[in-house]
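Deliverable D5.2: sample structural annotation.
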Amino acid sequence: MKPQLEKVVIAGLPVLYRVARRLTRHSQEAEDLVGQVLLRAARGWHNFDGRHARSWMITILKNEYCGMKRQQASAPAPTTLDDQDIAWCGSVFTEVLGKISSEQLISALEQLPNDSRLVVVLCDIEGMSYDDAARSL
């Protein structure tokens, strides 16, 4: 049985925002991106088979992000994240930050190509299985 769109959105919204925030590096851009994802999901809901809802929405997010990047004439300058920005990332960063500095971690993550960074975010930060992440990508 296919779940209701509202339930899928409510369950997936925190993950969508965290992934969008990590990709865009800007909270306002992440909010705009998630809004576009929700609009696309609502428009395409009749075609969705009801399986792997989180992966389906992350796939939409990835496609929207790639489309957004193609449309931009120049890439925005990356922002510097401080410890307060990192706090929302959860326990993974808390554990890792005890071993390396936050600057080293953010620098290493930001140096990854977008596709690689998305894999790290989905699997290591969001805790998705490799199968779910692969379906999303």
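Annotation notes: The longest helix spans residues 5-24. Helices lie at 5-24, 27-44, 53-71, 83-87, 91-97, 102-111, 114-125, 130-136.
The annotation will be released with the project's public dataset once the embargo ends.
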